[in-house]
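Dear colleague,

Following up on yesterday's call, I've attached the two folding results inline so they're easy to grep. Please treat them as preliminary; we haven't cross-checked anything against experimental data yet. The first protein's sequence and structure tokens come first.
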Amino acid sequence: MSQRSYFRDDPDPANDSLERRSFAQSVVGALAQVRQQSKSSVAGLIGPWGSGKSTTLSMVLDGLKDGQDVDWTVVELNPWLYSDTESLQLGFFVALREALPDGSKWSQGRERIGNFFTAISPAGKVNGIAGVDASAALESVGKWIAGDVSANGMKARAEKVLEDLEKPIMFVLDDLDRLTPEELLMVFKLVRLVGRLPNIYYLLAYDEKTLLDLIQQTDVAAGDRLRARDYMEKIVQVRFDMPPMRPKQTLALLDSALTELMERYGVVMDEQDVIRFSATYQDLISGYLTTPRAVNRYIAQIDSLFDSLNDEVNFVEFCLLTFLRTFEPEVYKKIPGSWRAELLGEDVGRMLRQRSGENAQEEARWLKELSEAGAADARTQSIFDLLSSLFPALEMIKKNYSGGLGSLQDKAERRLGVGHRDYFDRYFSFGVPGDDVPNRTVRGWLVRLGEGPDESVAAELEASLFEDTVRIARKIEARISEFPDAACLILPIAADIRSRVVHQSFSIVGSPMLAVERLARVAMEAVPSDRAHAVILEMDSYEYGAILVSEVLEDLRLTGDEGKITPVEPAVVEVLHRRVEGFISRDLKDVSDHDFRHVFHWRRAAGKEVVDPILREALIGGPWDALEFAALNVSVAISGSGESLSDLRIDFLEEVVGLDYFYENLSSELDGFEESVPDHLPVTRENRRKVALARLKYRRGPRD
């Protein structure tokens, strides 16, 4: 929490950043003029909730008590503190009696005020008023009923007493807008009754809209807004309307608060974050921050919950979501609720149904959704614009973006944005969920591994990477370039993980296999050139290590950066050659599908001009069988349902040894093969042979 409290709602006259003191001085001066021009009057300090009325009222009270223009007797009365209308009525007259000067001269005056109260109050309610004897009160009531003393007579005597006051009495009433309709009418009745007494003045502080709402609920207005306003105008003769915050004041207040939070949390906005927040502030947020309380309420919501998310989410996006949570709560609830899948681009059905060129219709649909969630129609467009700045799926609609959702989601990931699935839940859990790993933990792994091998850290990292491969791989990938020594230790871990996720080839949240391959490429770029060879040899000790480094080399070649390729290429060719050498002289029936895959990777890494002669020799003069070689060259398709056989690599066979070689060596097998081979057969060696024979026979055609 910051030293400045955004949660307090007490008057703060010491803080005059909104220039309320000069306004308060004007009010004090105006009340002095009212005193000169009338024997009694009622004024109103009017402003919406949170506009700073209480702070301004405190400043006005200071000015009244100073007595520079008029020597006032100030009576502060809060009607909201009384439990019922009778107590309120009693408190009113107690306050008036207590405001009279001390001394025997005024004892009779206090008695007359008490008698006036007795005359207009139910007899059973006078017990407890200071200085009024219940039996005497009852006696007075008896005389009044007998016609001996009238209420008007009592009032006349009270007026005579008050006319002799040297110091006028100023009643200051706050919190009128917290009363019930019945209590409010009682206050106004008392104000009108006592307000007609000489030297009695009132300053009422209230939110006009709320008071009009309350009066409309009474018989005075009977639901008529105009009648309610007319009634108020009869009560209040002088209006002092709170000056609204000027745009510069609002901006200064918000800037000051956000700057304080950012300094304390060590947040630095980049240029894009500044642009995003500024645009949203001008277009939307400023329309809600119309009072000091609204600004403080907004900042308090940020301040109370960001601490646990520091370094784990994007500060600006947290501020924007906090705005929705604070001022548009129904819209906010929909984001992690019914809108979640679509906002994160996980509503595959909708994405498939949506056709290009429908962005205008999609935006219109979203505006309707926002309206149905309770957003004012005048603000739905601005709220949609805010959401589109957070969620790539909506940004595509807003900007007619055709570059693909993935690239926008990558940007959201880099900025720790709510629009990326890795960070979404953090914004709504106000912390890192139990099934997630904090960014600071990932960075801690890299820092400690960068200092040297650490088995416990490596084991912790590997366990997390295996359990949540896609997400943890992305987190490491985003930071690994800063830690070249750690990269050297993480690549063997990646090779181990790649061996274990081989059958987890597909997931709605991304492929673990591809995530590890991408992590390995980025990590390899961070490895110092003089250590690349040793790291690759260590990776080769794992089952899929050589294949993983082959994929890394291919990705690096696509960059065209020789500086990245040169340190890696020789070592990759070496380990792949070594893998193939291990079975080049063996019967292919004893070679697994996995081992044979190294042939394709070696050929791609070293070049077919190097590899093909060796493969040709193994076929023509070596132990390799033509049918087994062809069978191992049937490709495998990977889908959501698993792996299945696809097609024969005809071009590969042609380039290595020529198709005639297979026609001649498999002549009898091809002639005798009559089986119909369906698509997508399970991956077995026998099925591989069937697919190979079927495709070769079809390619060869009928024999003469």
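Below is the second protein, in the same order (sequence, then structure):
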Amino acid sequence: MFSRKFRTFLLSLAFSLFSFAPVIAQNLPTNLAAKLLPEKLGEFRAASPLKATKKELVADEIDRDGLISEASRTYVAKDGQRLSVTLSTSASDAGAYALLTEERRRAESSGNEGGTTTGNIGTASYFYWDGLHNDLVFYKGRVSVYIIDGGGSRDSQLLLDFGKTLAETLDKGEGDIPVLIKHLPDWQKASRTALYVTSDKTLKRYFADGSVFSVVSFEGGAQAVVANYKGQGLIIVEFNTPQLATDNDQRIVTKIQDLRNQGQPIPAYRRVGNYAVFVVGAPNEQAADELIDQVKYQQVVQWLGENPFLYEEATREFTETTLGVFVSVVKASGLALVTCFAVGGLLGGFLFIRRRAQQRAVEAYTDAGGMLRLNLDEMTPQTDPTKLLGRGN
């Protein structure tokens, strides 16, 4: 039989475990993010324990962008400056990029001084002054990071140093932003405020439930981008197969017709390859068509199994590479030959001219040795007649 003291201990332990269980359940897991926020990062050291994020605060991101882990921590530099870091991991690179674009779009629309400035940390990044602190947001692979300079300085060097140090420890993933972004007209400028979308719930959140986007399905891994062009909203939804694009196209056309019959505003719409392209807020149909005309679909074929044309592709690549090497060698050899001829000609001409000059400067050669020589072979120049002895001499 257990003693009262021991039973009390067991009850206390059980109560503690049951009390702690809901706390664990309501926090987003930190295990993946925690591994990426060690005690020491270069010249920076952790100044606080890891802090979890409550699920209800990021429920939207979990549902729409595949957020799976998040942790926060404070770091301090050698000079005592402090940085607050929040690191999130997503189920995909696209999900991490979607989180970054949401943050940047929110920052650009906040009205704070200066807006955002594109950085060069990780795969994509930007700096932002929020009115009190200088912030750096970047993503690399499946990881997105939000860093706040706790000192309130406008100088971004501290953020830059820490961001580069942290980014070097992260897996690069695909190593580039989603290619759909690059299919936007003037994408370098448009991507500043573009919103990348990995869930149809995001489209339904930004547009009315009864809009045409309510029938768009992201089944099969579709993704989308929303960009602004002088008051016009351009939305491109990319479907992974022609069949999915066709199914969605049929639903979209039907929905647009229903909205037109109801007298509701409708967007300009066109299917471009596997893209569903929409324009909202256009001043007229011509302006919408001109914007859609700038969207070009670039088809990419991906084999789910073994590529049946692998040998042909390898042969073609080998042939092209070999031909390229041969042409390069011929060009290099020809250039070397021409260079040799040119240099040889210059040196030969210089030596020839120098030798001729030396020959003109030297007296005519004679092998007579000071003796009288008969000019039988007519090789010796004629003697001056005035210097010859006459008959009477």
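For the second protein, one point worth flagging: Residues 25-167 form a domain with the Protein Transport Mog1p; Chain A fold (CATH 3.40.1000.20).

Best wishes,
A.L.
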